Each structure stands twice: as structure tokens, then as C-alpha cells.
Amino acid sequence: MAGASQKEDEPITAINVTPLVDVCLVLVIIFMAVAPMAVALGIKVFETRPSNAEGKASVDENVNIRITPDGAISVNGTRTDGVTFRAVLAAALKSSKDKMVIVTADSMNKVGLVVEVLDASKQAGALKLAIMKTDSVAAGGGG
Known about the structure:
Shape: elongated
CATH class of the domain at 58-134: Alpha Beta
Radius of gyration: 28 Å
CATH architecture of the domain at 58-134: 2-Layer Sandwich
Structural class: alpha/beta
Number of helices: 3
Largest sheet: 5 strands, mixed
Helix content: 25-40%
Number of strands: 5
Strand order of the largest sheet: 3-2-1-4-5
């Protein structure tokens, strides 16, 4: 035994690794339990290639939401406010064949507003979401 070869007056120089192993195993179990929840949250964003758009439904069959730099929202060209937005969106999705919503936002828009529009679209029954970015900055503007 390790303790049998040691004299009483010598200091203990061996490190007890049992508590270290216990803490590491508990941390591994916690990470294994939390990891699936961390992966499930969020919005999946896929970058499409121009060739993927061939043969798809025309843009007229989709619901187009435009967010202007000042925060105004229009659904299929009809300007809405915060009160009527969800009702207009639900009506537009009912007439949509693919239940696809295309959100066009400016680079100056707040991310929170874009996420709220995407969330409202999903709650209204959208099956597919697409995000398009436009630049309102004139040529020679910032980066």
C-alpha cells in the first residue's frame, strides 16, 4: 500500500485524484444533459445558390414581408402596423401555396424586429422562411 511505505514524520506528497475524477464525471454528466437543449434552440439558416431557385414556386405565390429602415412593415406591398400585422400575415399565408415567407430587411434594421417578424411568421403557419438583405446606403457608403 502507498501509505505503508511512508514514515510518520514525512509530509504527504501524493495527490488524491478521487475528488478530481468525481468532479470531472459530474461535469461530463451535466454537459451531456444540457447539450441537446443548446442545439435545439435557434433558427436554422441555409445559404441557397442561384441554381436552387429554378423550378420553385414563383415569387408571386409567396408571402413577401418588407421591413424598411424606419421599422415600417409591409406584407405583399400592403403597409401594416403592429396591431394588424399578424392578421394580415395570417390572411396572406392562407392564400399562399407553399406557405413560404420571404422577409426582406435592410442592413440598418434592428435584428430584434427581424426576429420578431420571423417568429410571427412561424406562429402564423409559415412552413419555410427566407431572409433577404438590401442595402439602403447609397453607392460609396459604409461597409
